[in-house]
Amino acid sequence: MKERARPAPLPRLILTDSVYEAVKELVMDQHIEPGARVNIDQLARDLRVSPTPVREALARLEMDGLVIKEPLRGYSIAPILDAAAFEQLYEVRGLIEPFAARRACERANRQLVTALQREIDAMRKTIEGLRPEKPLGYRDYREFAFQDARFHEAIAAASGNELLGETLSRLRSHLHLYRLYYATGIGPETAAEHEAIVKAIAAHQPEEAAAAMAEHITRSQGRQRRAFES
Amino acid sequence: MKERARPAPLPRLILTDSVYEAVKELVMDQHIEPGARVNIDQLARDLRVSPTPVREALARLEMDGLVIKEPLRGYSIAPILDAAAFEQLYEVRGLIEPFAARRACERANRQLVTALQREIDAMRKTIEGLRPEKPLGYRDYREFAFQDARFHEAIAAASGNELLGETLSRLRSHLHLYRLYYATGIGPETAAEHEAIVKAIAAHQPEEAAAAMAEHITRSQGRQRRAFES
DNA sequence: GTTCCCAATATCCTATAGCATATTGCCGCC
DNA sequence: GGCGGCAATATGCTATAGGATATTGGGAAC
Q1: Cβ neighbours for A92, distance < 8 A, ≥ 6 positions apart
Q2: Which nucleotide comes closest to A15 if you measure CA to C1'?
Q3: Residue A207 pLDDT level (bands cut at 50, 70, 90)
Q4: CA separation for the pair B93, A99 (Å, rounded)
Q5: For residue B37, what are the β-bridge partners?
Q6: What Cα–Cα distance (Å) separates residue A175 from each residue in A29, A33, A79, A227, B218?
Q7: For a tag site, which of A140, A203, B57, B70 has the least CB within 10 Å?
């Protein structure tokens, strides 16, 4: 028989998936800075896995635009969004998201409204939980960014067009944008604008919902842009 | 010294990229049918490479949605578009492409117009080159599909928003859609509709360009849908 | 002092071997 | 005759070793 003394280094689902998520978090949480080289063997040792799943994970992340592979030099973390890419991202969001909001409103039911409202409440709770005297940790920004993302994803999913939601989450720059939240400052404006969108959906007014979403995207762009230029 | 008698099995750029393109063509050209299992080792032997680049290529293709990975069963070719996904694809295209056409028209110059016109002429040449008595080979459909794709990509690229073009080409279903061209039938309608778009762009009429593109998408959807239901 | 060349190093890329798990066919049992 | 369990097989997953190439540092020549 064989002895079973191996310490089981990771939770073990599909190793490649675990590595993919792990590296994604590593980048998004600023533990690796943009432009830095990524050594495959080193990363494999750190995560206690073999290089093969690391390679597969990096190949996926390259499709996400989060890392860049140069022919015989290896992988490196993609640079942060520049001003032009930032404007382009919001132009595409401004095109897609109001459309998704209109569709979602046309098909909306009670469940969707309560789910969206629950997300808003959670965000308000996060904001209230912050102590002014205590500096904001990256976990605060992280939580806030996730709540924002979940709200927008829920609307896209409710549009009845799955491809629309996929297209939105594939906007590779979303991941980079997450990093920007660090500088954005967490304010109650986001929750208020979300509230306006939900109100229009609850009233079954598709055009109002689309307009509220467009307004939200524009204002969000303005907030991020201010933080961006500093 | 070392002897150099190795036969150099592939052109050798970056092996992973070559495998990626090779598998993509294999699927798009119907050499592997949807739903079929893909054996990594077998594929590696066929292409005369080691399993590692095959793994990386398949990981990328999974992000494209062209193959599916099941936990401990391996990869298989993604199933063809169903009717719902087909309608969703055209809904998204109908949202994005007229916008791209409007932007491209606003920024258009002489070069763009001539480039687009050249593409249309090439497509007309392809159509005229077909002999009625000779059955259409897959190379004919392939050539036609590529010309159509190049036209749309050129407009998206000219929009001034790179992300718009990337978003469009990332619509994973485009690859699947290519397979549909086999059943669509090649007609002169496509070239004529392209012509209308270019005419609007040449006249610097952004709204007309957007309308012409929207009309083209709708008609294309109708043509494909007919072939789709057979 | 600067530039060019060479060597040493590091890293990626390829290949192969061993392990774990899912699947399939067969046999026995009910 | 149908069903459940078991064993054999196939396949994907992990790990490690060796070869090829780009990069970097030092030394010599100008």
Answers
A1: A171, B161, B163, B164, B167
A2: D13
A3: very high
A4: 13
A5: B76
A6: 11, 14, 12, 17, 33
A7: B70
Name chain A contacts of B55, Cβ cutoff 8 Å: 52, 55-56
Nearest nucleotide (C1') to the CA of residue B10? Answer: C14
- For CATH 1.10.10.10, the residue range(s) in chain B are 15-77
CA of B227 to C1' of D12 (A): 38
Closest-CA residue of chain A to B17: A71
Cα distances from B206 to residues B35, B114, B191, B214, in angstroms, run 43, 17, 20, 12
What is the distance between the alpha carbons of residues A188 and A111, in angstroms, rounded to a whole number? 24
Query: What are the structure tokens assigned to A80, written together?
Result: 């942060």
Distance of CA B27 to the CA centre of its chain: 12
Q: Are B210 and B101 in contact (CB under 8 A)?
A: yes
ipTM of the complex: 0.84
**CA–CA gap between residue A43 and residue A48 (Å, rounded):** 8
Residue with tokens 């979303």: A174
**Per-residue DSSP letter, A136:** P
Average pLDDT, chain A: 82
Determine how many CB atoms are found less than 10 A away from the CB of residue B88: 22
pLDDT at A217 over 50: yes
For domain B83-228, the CATH class is mainly alpha
On whether the CB atoms of residues A105 and A113 are closer than 8 A, the answer is: no
Positions of E strands within A4-81: 37-38, 67-70, 74-77
Q: Is the CB of A38 under 7 A from strand C?
A: yes
pLDDT confidence tier of residue A3, bands split at 50, 70 and 90:
very low
Cβ within 8 Å, pair A92-B52 = no
CA B128 to chain centroid, in Å, comes to 22
CATH number assigned to the domain with residue range A15-77, chosen from the 4 options 2.40.240.10, 1.10.10.10, 3.40.50.1000, 3.40.50.300 = 1.10.10.10
Q: Which two tokens stand for residue B4?
A: 């150099």
Tell me the per-residue pLDDT of B47-78, one tens digit each, with 9 for 90 and over.
Answer: 878 888 888 888 888 888 888 887 667 888 88
Comma-separated ranges of CATH 1.20.120.530 domains in chain B: 83-228
- In sequence order, the 6+-apart residues with CB closer than 8 A to the CB of A17 are none
Kindly report, residue by residue over B106-156, the tens digit of the pLDDT.
999 999 999 999 999 999 998 887 766 666 666 777 788 888 889 999 999
